[in-house]
């Protein structure tokens, strides 16, 4: 983002704060800049003394009057094209069980940051943000006082199931890692995580039909082989081997390729970490020689026409249409989506045959880096500081219920007799509905069955389990497998206040230059261009941020 745009955003934030002050709703305190940093002390934080948690309370409205008053919650969700509903099973359920109404609005990921700032500047913020990420600006929003914070005890009182949500991976993950990682130095958490219940589930995928036609006998094992395979496919069949798009940051595109060099999949959120392949420590990875190698790879991919040329501006629908024409031959994705990818292309390519492989390309022979899922998913939720205690309580009651057997069944299967049936004691989605492993049929989302709880939930459907077990055996347990786990880094209020703007300007510059490199406007092989990039980072405070990250990393005894 250009500096002028950042200044406009800053003025928008100032206007928002003035509006809140004039309305008597303003919150004051210490700002925050990143996971584990300081955050403002919002006056509406936690539950009030008159709003006790209802974790043990009945959720049948007929059994108590705890939900006597209807509560409406305005929710901002991330979506390019909202689903048109055929049935309103979820709306009916939350009204019946919790006397709650969701007023939902939608915005594309690429516009999310701008939308949030605009809404706050206008004093029209929603009560709940369904998806926030640091790479979209959630740290800055926390700093501005947008979000409501919770202490450990407050959050567990509201959502008791949080303490055991991650037990399938690590029975101490919540207390020992997730809360410390996401909380700020004031001891509160402002972005509420949702769970991943597997250690990982993504792999390199390729089209066997394309490999057969091109005479490619094996999946590439390093970056140069990967490029050569893409070149062969392009020259032989005339299709674009790689198709992706900018999802609010080019860094998300190249992080998938950066895995080959030991970089994390969530690269935009992790400027400081230790490379699991080489042991090298980065205190600002975007200025490293390793990052330059990944940018060179991205430059080759894009300038040689091996990548969808409209990646920077295309919508998800445009990308989908481009794939449907037969483009895309290699990707890093979920093996459970193979049938979905085949169905998308089958009209244009009747013999399309997607496969996944346990081969993971790497710059280090005998050692490879994978996307090891963090315990929590990337998208987190956040209540606005202006949300009422009753709105927070009602939503948390729903989330706690969503983690019961009844709640998980509804979130993943829907209503018995309507969307699923029980056969020989097993729940089966009815034949007329589509699932990722059977992509033909009516989308369950049109019946509002789309995991709205705190559990990632895909693995709850029994048919996914064999694929995930195979992934675990063939990749995670394979000799030489390594991965990056985000480090816990605690910034003091003073560090946060001093470096928030600097780190924002650095991120904007990194994204600006990366786009220029990928578009061929600048050349990462050219020392003059690369040095100009580094020089701009230095002028913006690169060395100060590197020193800060080093001090905080060592001070908080972060995991390597």
Descriptive terms for the model:
560 residues; alpha/beta; D-Maltodextrin-Binding Protein, domain 2; 19 strands; 38% helix
Provide an overview of this structure.
The structure is a single chain. With 560 residues, the chain is an alpha/beta fold. The chain has two domains: 3-198 and 377-409, Periplasmic binding protein-like II (D-Maltodextrin-Binding Protein, domain 2, 3-Layer(aba) Sandwich); 215-310 and 356-372 and 475-560, D-Maltodextrin-Binding Protein, domain 2 (3-Layer(aba) Sandwich). It has helices spanning 3-22, 89-98, 112-121, 138-143, 152-158, 173-182, 208-214, 223-237, 250-258, 289-303, 316-324, 338-345, 389-402, 405-413, 465-476, 493-518, 527-539, 542-555; strands at 28-29, 40-41, 71-78, 100-107, 128-132, 150-151, 188-189, 203-207, 273-274, 281-282, 330-333, 354-356, 368-370, 380-383, 420-423, 426-429, 433-434, 442-443, 481-483. Helix 1 (3-22) packs parallel to helix 3 and helix 7 crosses helix 8. The protein is globular and about 70 Å long. The two termini are 31 Å apart.
Number of strands: 19
Helix content: 25-40%
Q: How would you name the oligomeric state of the polypeptide chains in this document? A: single chain
3D shape: globular
Structural class: alpha/beta
By CATH, the architecture of the largest domain is named 3-Layer(aba) Sandwich
Tally of distinct domains? 2
Number of helices: 18
Low-confidence stretches: 1-39, 41-63
């Amino acid at each position: 983002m250009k500096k002028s745009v950042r200044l406009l955003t800053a003025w928008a934030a100032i206007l928002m704060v003035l509006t809140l002050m004039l309305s008597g709703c303003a919150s004051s305190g210490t700002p925050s800049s990143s996971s584990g940093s300081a955050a403002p002390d919002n006056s509406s934080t936690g539950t009030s003394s008159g709003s006790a948690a209802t974790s043990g309370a009945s959720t049948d409205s007929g059994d108590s009057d705890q939900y006597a008053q209807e509560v409406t919650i305005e929710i901002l969700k991330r979506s390019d094209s909202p689903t048109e509903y055929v049935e309103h099973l979820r709306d009916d359920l939350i009204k019946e069980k919790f006397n709650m109404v969701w007023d939902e609005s939608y915005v594309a990921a690429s516009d999310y940051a701008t939308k949030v700032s605009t809404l706050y500047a206008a004093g029209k913020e929603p009560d709940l943000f369904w998806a926030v990420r640091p790479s979209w600006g959630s740290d800055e929003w926390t700093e501005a006082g947008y979000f409501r914070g919770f202490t450990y005890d407050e959050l567990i009182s509201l959502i008791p199931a949080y303490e055991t949500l991650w037990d399938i991976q690590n029975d101490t993950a919540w207390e020992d890692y997730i809360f410390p990682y996401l909380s700020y130095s004031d001891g509160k958490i402002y972005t509420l995580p949702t769970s991943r219940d597997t250690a990982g589930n993504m792999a390199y995928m390729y089209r066997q039909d394309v490999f057969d036609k091109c005479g490619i006998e094996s999946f590439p094992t390093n970056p140069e082989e990967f490029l050569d395979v893409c070149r062969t496919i392009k020259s032989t069949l005339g299709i674009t081997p790689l198709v992706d798009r900018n999802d609010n940051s080019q860094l998300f595109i190249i992080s998938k390729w950066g895995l080959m060099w030991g970089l994390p999949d969530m690269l935009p959120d992790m400027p400081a970490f230790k490379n699991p392949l080489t042991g090298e420590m980065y205190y600002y990875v975007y200025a490293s020689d390793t990052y330059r190698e990944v940018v060179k790879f991205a430059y080759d991919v894009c300038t040689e026409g091996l990548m969808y040329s409209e990646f920077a501006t295309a919508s998800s629908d445009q990308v989908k249409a481009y794939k449907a024409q037969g483009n895309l031959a290699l990707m890093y994705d979920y093996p459970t989506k193979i049938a979905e990818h085949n169905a998308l292309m089958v009209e244009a390519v009747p013999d399309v045959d997607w496969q996944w492989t346990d081969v993971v390309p790497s710059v280090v022979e005998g050692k490879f880096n994978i996307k090891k899922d963090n315990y929590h998913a990337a998208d987190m939720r956040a209540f606005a500081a202006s949300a009422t205690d009753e709105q927070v309580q009602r939503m948390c009651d729903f989330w706690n219920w969503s983690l019961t057997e009844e709640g998980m069944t509804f979130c993943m299967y829907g209503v018995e007799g309507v969307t699923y049936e029980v056969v020989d004691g097993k729940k089966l989605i009815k034949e007329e509905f589509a699932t990722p492993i059977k992509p033909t049929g009516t989308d369950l989302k049109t019946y509002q069955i789309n995991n709205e709880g705190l559990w990632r939930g895909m693995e709850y459907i029994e048919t996914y389990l064999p694929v995930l077990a195979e992934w675990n055996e063939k990749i995670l347990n394979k000799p030489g497998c390594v991965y990056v786990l985000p480090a816990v880094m605690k910034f003091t209020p003073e560090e946060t206040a001093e470096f928030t703007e600097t780190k924002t300007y650095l991120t904007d510059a990194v994204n600006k230059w990366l786009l220029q490199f990928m578009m061929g406007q600048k050349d990462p092989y050219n020392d003059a261009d690369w040095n100009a990039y580094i020089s701009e980072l230095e002028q913006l405070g690169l060395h100060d941020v590197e020193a800060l990250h080093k001090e905080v990393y060592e001070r908080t005894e972060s995991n390597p």
